[in-house]
Design goal:
Blueprint: E1 8-11, H1 15-27, E2 32-35, H2 38-44, E3 53-57, H3 65-78, E4 85-90, H4 95-103, E5 108-111, H5 116-130
Parallel strand pairs: 1-2, 1-3, 3-4, 4-5
Helix pairs in contact: 2-3
């Protein structure tokens, strides 16, 4: 597998959604990579040590976004690395999902459809916390 320098990993089983959001972030100057399943995201992590923000859909076949967070945290702990900031997105948002996301330490929760600029603001905000060279675009993340 090729090494990558992406700082954002976007995970969604809806290929068009993942590709469009990833392309949007890249056009906005944020190095990003798409994965189409939690399993693919887990396979990419060793090749993408620069990942600082993981954006994932909640409901996907196989592992859910919450299960992905658990696995990524296990991987990062084993590799003695800091876990990325987690942003979850879903088309099936409810209070239960929002409460679970909070319990998982998720830093952002977006209900589909959402304004891609809202995602960009969240990503920039959390990247700027670990890399002061990333501009925050001057707005609050939410």
């Amino acid at each position: 597998m090729d090494a990558c320098d992406a700082k954002v990993l976007l995970v969604d089983d809806e290929h068009d959604c993942a590709d469009q959001l990833c392309e949007f972030l890249v056009r906005r100057g944020l190095s990003s990579r798409a994965a189409y399943s939690a399993a693919e995201a887990l396979d990419l992590l060793p090749a993408c040590p620069e990942i600082r923000v993981l954006v994932s859909d909640i409901k996907m076949p196989g592992l859910t976004g919450f299960a992905l967070i658990d696995k990524v945290n296990e991987h990062m702990t084993a590799a003695n690395r800091t876990s990325p900031a987690y942003i979850l997105m879903t088309g099936h948002a409810g209070q239960v999902e929002a409460d679970i996301a909070t319990a998982y330490g998720v830093v952002g929760f977006l209900s589909k459809p959402f304004d891609p600029y809202a995602l960009e603001r969240l990503v920039r905000y959390h990247l700027s916390r670990v890399d002061p060279d990333v501009p925050t675009a001057g707005r609050s993340p939410v």
